[in-house]
Write a structure and sequence with these properties.
Elements lengths: L2 E5 L2 E3 L5 E8 L8 E6 L6 E6 L6 E3 L7 E6 L4 E6 L8 E7 L2 H6 L3 E2 L5 E5 L2
Parallel strand pairs: 2-11
Antiparallel strand pairs: 1-3, 3-8, 4-5, 4-9, 5-6, 7-8, 9-10, 9-11
Length: 123
């Protein structure tokens, strides 16, 4: 069974930082492109960032460029998202998911509903 458990969220003030982690199991993590998506209640999921299976290629949505950094540790089957200079509009539930940009665009990526982590940016 595929498991994608995100953690590391919390309440942070604007301008603050958080580091999200995603523990993956049940599939060949080291051979899989991965992504972070986020969702605000009442809105669809939006792509935040992707990383290739070997970590050599990354993609960032314009609204996080220069502030967020995606990385992975294939030895630990773990995906990360370092978030700096957080803004109130970054408030959302963050999920890790299997796939890259193409999978996001086509809607064929996999994520585990209910295993996201809440990030709240507020003073």
């Amino acid at each position: 069974e595929v498991q994608l458990q995100a953690s590391g969220g919390g309440l942070v003030q604007p301008g603050g930082s958080l580091r999200l982690s995603c523990a993956a199991s049940g599939f060949t993590f080291g051979s899989s492109d991965m992504m972070w998506v986020r969702q605000v209640p009442g809105k669809g999921r939006e792509l935040v960032s992707t990383i290739s299976s070997d970590g050599g290629r990354t993609f960032y949505a314009d609204f996080v460029k220069g502030r967020f950094t995606i990385s992975r540790d294939n030895a630990k089957n773990t995906l990360y998202l370092e978030m700096n200079s957080l803004k109130s509009e970054d408030t959302a539930v963050y999920y890790c998911a299997i796939g890259g940009v193409r999978a996001y665009v086509s809607g064929t990526y996999y994520y585990s509903r209910g295993q996201g982590t809440q990030v709240t940016v507020s003073s």
